[in-house]
Amino acid sequence: MLTFSFLTLFPELLAPFANEAIIGKARERGLLDVNLVQLRDFSDNRHHKVDDTPYGGGAGMVIRVDVAERALASLPPADEIILLTPAGQPFTQAVAEELAQKQHLALLCGRYEGFDARTEGLVTRELSIGDFVMMGGEAAAACVLEAVARLLPGVLGDPNSHRADSFSSGLLDYPEYTRPPEWQGVGVPEVLRGGNHGAVAAWRREQALTRTLARRSELLAGAELTPQDTLTLLGLGVTPEGLQLWNAPPPPPPKRARRKKKSVPEVESG
Q1: Would you state the pLDDT for residue 267?
Q2: Is the peptide bond before 250 cis (omega within 30 degrees of 0)?
Q3: Does 113 qualify as catalytic in the annotation?
Q4: From the candidates 86, 97, 98, 120, which is the catalytic residue?
Q5: What pLDDT is stored for residue 157 in this prediction?
Q6: Whether CATH 3.30.1490.20 fits 182-245
Q7: Which of 127, 192, 206, 265 has the fewest CB atoms within 10 Å around its CB?
Q8: Single pTM value for the model
């Protein structure tokens, strides 16, 4: 069972993510656990103050390193101690899959001007969910919780459902459709209604490539492309030079047309 420990000044912000929907049900079934730790419980003053003014001056307050250290020391040993920060490593699907193999993740959620820089010496990893600044690390921590928890065995109803998701294959996901079969003049693609599973799989792969090329072409450099993918991308207008930059394999050799057997005229017996 994987345990998430969130060290935060606002545990009530993370409580809904831990208690509701799929994650809440997974906790009830003992598939994962969430531990919300109030940083103020580890202050050394009667007012439970955890921050102070920055040395050198400047606006805002900084969370003290000794508070973070005491809070972390109260926990069982963690496989990873993670600081949510704009300066961190980008949080990707690959990182989520790596973290899903652990047993205990401790995540530090900053506020104000963040943690004292010496806190970086207490952590094993720094993560960022994007190139923007928020008011605190709780929303970023919730993203990590959702992305990692859904990869744990038994959390999702279909154990294979996450394998075709965006980024799991290195590509964006293919478009999905459900009822009604036609809505405001737009119908469901006929291939999805025909019952040919092979044709559906080929269509979905082609659509994933098409979407990725149009919207996030930089992802193709890290995708595991097949010879058939190369053929599809060539058909979409990608140049051979572009395919070389993405380390795409050569396309499959063209199929040879089968020769028709010549019919031998029958000889009438005399």
Answers
A1: 64
A2: no
A3: yes
A4: 86
A5: 77
A6: no
A7: 265
A8: 0.86
- Predicted confidence at residue 63, as pLDDT, reads 97
The helix (run of H) or strand (run of E) holding residue 88 is strand 80-90
Q: Which pLDDT score is estimated for 258? A: 73
Which of 40, 150, 204, 211 is flagged as catalytic?
Answer: 150
pLDDT value of position 160: 61
| Positions at the binding site | 110, 129-134
User: CA nearest 70: which of 39, 97, 101, 95?
Assistant: 39
If you write DSSP's letter for every residue of 196-262 in order, what string do you get? -HHHHHHHHHHHHHHHHHHH-GGGGGGS---HHHHHHHHHTT--HHHHHHTTPPPPPPPPPPPPPPP
The full set of domain ranges for the chain reads: 2-149, 182-245
Closest CA to 234 of 255, 221, 249: 249
In angstroms, the CA 180 to CA 170 distance is 30
Task: Check if 165 is active-site.
Answer: yes
* 219 residue type, one letter: L
Known catalytic membership, residue 252: no
Residue-wise pLDDT tens digits, 180-218: 999 999 999 999 999 999 999 999 999 999 999 999 999
Which CATH number fits the domain 2-149, given the four candidates 3.30.160.20, 3.40.50.2300, 3.40.50.720, 3.40.1280.10? 3.40.1280.10
Average of per-residue pLDDT values in the chain:
93
Q: What six digits make up the tokens of 52?
A: 């102070």
What is residue 259's predicted lDDT score, i.e. its pLDDT?
73
Cβ-based burial of 209 (10 A; exposed 0-12, middle 13-18, buried ≥19): buried
